[in-house]
Design brief:
Strand order of the largest sheet: 2-1-3
Shape: elongated
CATH class of the domain at 124-183: Mainly Alpha
CATH architecture of the domain at 124-183: Orthogonal Bundle
Strand content: 5-15%
CATH topology of the domain at 124-183: DNA polymerase, domain 1
Distance between the termini: 86 Å
Order of helices and strands: HEEHEEHHHE
Largest sheet: 3 strands, mixed
Radius of gyration: 28 Å
């Protein structure tokens, strides 16, 4: 092969590489519309759609709210008018919301159990119970109590004791103790 032929082949190879790189960077061509009467299928990879959540407890306007996907507990509490006589630090405001979730902001005041103190006769509030309070329940040790508090914080609150059934280490006997000792 002569030197001039090698230069021509080299120039063609470089041109093809440039065209290929340009084609890769270019936007994909629009797909043709589906035939009339054909059903289409698409997947929303952005996680779009709305979430429906129930905000309860010590907020100005408790109720059911529709929020954009990706919203946080703080967004739900704000949508419900903000905290009113409650303890916002008892709820993980940074947790992501899930569809159908209930967010409970525990109340403070004479009827609320102070943080770090267990009610002697009444149930412990599931929305604001501390690790120490949960540890007083028969069948729950400090590790399980910590797991319950972390689970509650990750989910922005708990609607019922039955949700704790999702935690490992909580069996039927422990669930029964929890039902007797925990309130909303």
């Amino acid at each position: 092969m002569s030197r001039s032929q090698a230069l021509v082949y080299g120039a063609v190879a470089v041109a093809l590489l440039l065209l290929g790189a340009r084609a890769i960077r270019a936007e994909p061509a629009a797909s043709p519309p589906p035939p009339a009467g054909a059903k289409s299928f698409s997947i929303d990879t952005a996680g779009g759609g709305d979430l429906v959540v129930h905000v309860a407890g010590a907020v100005r306007d408790p109720g059911v709210y529709r929020l954009p996907a990706g919203s946080r507990v703080d967004d739900a509490v704000r949508r419900a008018g903000g905290v009113r006589g409650g303890e916002p630090d008892a709820v993980n405001l940074a947790a992501r919301l899930t569809d159908g979730q209930q967010v409970v902001v525990p109340a403070t005041g004479p009827m609320a159990v102070p943080a770090g103190a267990a009610a002697a006769d009444g149930p412990i509030s599931l929305g604001s119970a501390t690790v120490e309070q949960l540890d007083t329940i028969e069948g729950i040790g400090p590790v399980t109590a910590r797991d319950i508090v972390e689970f509650r914080d990750e989910h922005g609150g708990l609607a019922s004791v039955e949700q704790l059934d999702e935690l490992s280490g909580i069996g039927p006997a422990t669930m029964e103790s929890l039902r007797d000792r925990l309130g909303p």
